[in-house]
Amino acid sequence: MKKDHKNKKYGMVIDLDKCTGCGSCMTACMAENNVPFREDESVKTLSITWMRVYKLKNGKSFPDADICYLPRTCMHCEGHHGHAPCVSVCPATATDYSSETGIVSQIYTRCFGCRYCMGACPYHARYFNWWDPVWPDGMKKMLSPNVSPRMRGVVEKCSFCFHRYQLAKDKAFAEHRENDEVYEDEYQTACTQACPSGAITFGDLNNPDHAVFKLKKDPHAFRLLERLGTNPKVYYVSSREWVRRAGDNYLKHEKTGLKPKHH
Amino acid sequence: MKIDRRSFLSCVIGGAAGTALTPLPWKITDDISIWTQNWPWTPVPADGETNYVKSACTLCPGGCGISVRKIDERPIKIEGMKGHPVNDGGICSHGLAGLQLLYAEQRIKTPLKRTGKRGEGKWEAVSWDAAIAEVVKNLKGLRSKGRANTIASITGTDTGTVNRLVKRFLTAYGSPNYMTIPSIQDAYELAMESMHGSKTLPSFDFDNADFILSFGAGLLDGWGSPVSMFKTNSIWRDNKASMVQVEPRLSNTAAKSDQWVPVNPGTEAALAMGMACAIINDAAYDRNFVENHSHGFDKFKKLVTTDYTPDKAAEITGIKKTVIVALAKKFIKAAKPIAVCGRGKGKVPGTLNEVVAVHALNALAGNINKKGGVFTSPASDHMKWPEISIDSVAKAGLDKDRIDQAGSKKYPASSLLNRLPEVLKKDLINILFVAGANPLYSMADTKALNQAFEKIPMIISFSSYMDETASAADLILPNHSCMERYEDVCSKAGMQKNVISLAKPVIPPLFNTKNTGDVIIEIAEQMGGQIKDSFNWNDYESCLAETFGDKWDTLLEQGYITAEKCKYTGEAFNTSSGKFEFPDSGKAFIPAPGLIKIEGDEKSYPLILIPYDSMRLASGYTGDTPFAIKTVEDFVLAGKDSLAEINPKTAASLGIGNGKYAILTTPKGKVRIKLNLSEGIMPGLIAIPRGLGHSAGGRFLADKGVNVNELIGTVEDPVSGLNAAWGIRASLKKT
């Protein structure tokens, strides 16, 4: 892959010590991205939540029990040179890895619903539209024109609010900026913006001026299932060892913080 | 032609090769995907100019500033207002989903008059003129009979101009019965009155504190101003401040704190007293504060050192003595420690003892009226309205006692809605206004309140939504939704800043609704006489503009105004001694055990049911929106079933497994419920979240789960009369 200084690698660092599990990020995502809802959303494998907050437990009994919340978006895996697990299996080229932004796209009109990508994704970040989205009377009025509503039979997932990147890019272009440079605060995802705790930080992982560049180097930073080689772009930070261990399948004698060998 | 092997094979192979070479299969696959996707009913949202309107969130008393994104005239998303002193860009799940309340199916679209039986759901649409005329006719009738004191009102809070207009109307009309939805603030107000000498709310300078000891307060579960508290928690993380959570269940607050101290439920006050004893035994308290700026310390010392030694406290609370003593040491050694209470979101006032005991710790640390400490916050004084002119009928009415006896010697609290079922008899309330509140859902012992409401001949609801209380009303005068109206929002709960934000119409009213402020002014005008004179405003908007005077333009433009920060007043107190008053047995305090006994006998009800609060479940005036209910976890709500949290040990002793049904019985009721086995709860307890089990509120919310308020009764605090029931005894049986 061409190493170009213009290439961005957008990613997130989520501070699990600050996350309170309030669920704002989930709602912010739904409201931003025209995510549909049904009367019963309690079967979570069928409930479309691009952003889902998981509750982790330390497995100990009362009173040593502990919990931690973990917001899970699409990890926008880079894999080896953009070979994200989902991208490699999609027969319709409906999902692709952008080397310009590091964002894994999902093109609904190309997707014909084979769901290979869902099987390939180790993070359960992808959701299938088993039903046509139906908005109650009047609620269609709150749909955003920036994100196209999906239809029955396609897979959808977190886009890192790509439409916000496009808007920021348009602005940069209109202002004749050099390389259409998008500033850090101009492109932020809806969940980052809404988080009341400021637990989510978003930006270009390649850019030393962006906050995420430094935060990802925190000694307590880890990524989910890192050793699978998915090379995800969402980092988590937790001061609790058991939480870091929960991020991957560790054997008893293994320590956290080991980097995958083939990277 | 004869079909031989050769021609057969060439036909098959040729056909296969031909099909593969033609674009046909690819074209068909492509077409299939297009056909399966291009349903005409997949909406294409209209595009337009993006613009933002600054407003304020009215969904809870938190007082967050919001910025509503619009496409031309169409509001499409609510975001937090950047730079707002309360939330600075952050926003909670419910605020984000506020537009779903604007477009909600349960919106009331026009004034409604009941035609069938109460609660039957049969309504007749009436005009605003007819609806207001009916209210005025009834109000005039009562007044002419000298029964002016038999009207009452229930509002969500007592801040903000709309609530104050309701209060003003009641006063001018001649009724003292202005009631509000209870909360921990009622108990704090009384504690501050007895200890600081001002009947006002405390402000906690949390941001600057370095040790936070919470006695069950769900600081990160929706206590106070939720978004502001989340921000504060992040400050604590960055500043390496310590946080200790005392509570029997591993709430989100407990999970986020540095130390979780599981305590026997309802014994928090004993722990505070035990800690006070340990501090006094070590003579580790702030000598300067105690000796020079407090009064009654010796009596307090005697009380705790005899009745609440750490040994005794350990016995009551179930916490080891060493833990209590260590906690006391950590607390008193911290530079800026704050002790705070109020279970969960603070929906139940609780016993005054508890608040007083907890606040006494702040005094022992001398961390009062100081940076990083607890303050008496000055009451917001922006509503300087002309004196109400009171005629003879009003005077006669106001001289009568309140129905709930609040404000009397026996019951010093300002409002005691919890006492209504007990005291309400026929002809005591003839007309009830309900605005910005849903008591028939949110009050403990819901059934008893429902029965009490049946004794009220006329219930007038101002709700925007067909909620439980509106469903039981006789006349509904629907308010605009939060996106269609002006309203001032005063943030107060626990904040060190007094911020007033302005909710503004983001969109013209969708339906035939009216701002409650306007309706009150209109009713007052039609009442005539001195009532009319007390409401000398053309409409609500002009009332607001006049109230804020020269600040109105700033409020309109900026979206908020910040009143003065709490002054670091040093050691000034308004008590008769001029000093901080330690609690003693003669005043706001009863000797050991001083704990509230909950309803139910141990033999029939071996377990204890406690309600808990979650940020994902709104449990006040409005319930969860479709978005918010989607965020509720599957171990809280599964289909239409609530799940009750219970320790695996307790479940094992009953022989009930995870996810299995059980019958939960309390002295108040019986429900079928699923169990969620959790190690994060003390054995012997059952926990159910508030916010589910609505009978109204639209198809996305109604009939899902159990309303815990229906299972729990009220217990009167002997000191204040406020509801102090922190739970109820319960039993679980296999189905």
Describe this structure in words.
The complex is a heterodimer of chains A (263) and B (735). Chain A is an alpha+beta fold and 263 residues long. Chain A has a single domain (10-246), classed as Alpha-Beta Plaits, CATH 3.30.70.20. Helices cover 18% and strands 13% of the residues of chain A. Chain A has seven helices and eight strands; from the N terminus they run βαββααββααβαββα. Chain A has helices at residues 24-32, 85-89, 116-120, 162-174, 190-194, 211-215, 241-246, and strands at residues 10-15, 52-57, 67-72, 127-128, 155-156, 200-204, 221-222, 234-237. Chain A has a four-stranded mixed β-sheet. In chain A, strands 2-3 form a two-stranded antiparallel sheet. A two-stranded antiparallel ribbon of chain A has the order 4-5. The radius of gyration of chain A is 19 Å and the shape is globular. Chain B is an alpha/beta fold and 735 residues long. Chain B folds into four domains: 5-37, no CATH class; 112-182 and 390-484 and 505-550, Rossmann fold; 196-379 and 571-581, 3-Layer(aba) Sandwich (Dimethylsulfoxide Reductase, domain 2); 607-734, Beta Barrel (Barwin-like endoglucanases), CATH 2.40.40. Helices cover 33% and strands 18% of the residues of chain B. Chain B is built from 26 helices and 28 strands. In chain B, the strands form seven sheets. Chain B has a seven-stranded mixed β-sheet, covered by helices on one side. In chain B, strands 22-27-24-26-25-28 form a six-stranded mixed beta barrel. In chain B, a hairpin with a 2-residue loop joins β23 (637-638) and β24. In chain B, α5 (128-144) packs across α21 and α6 runs parallel beside α21 (516-527). Chain B is globular and about 120 Å long.
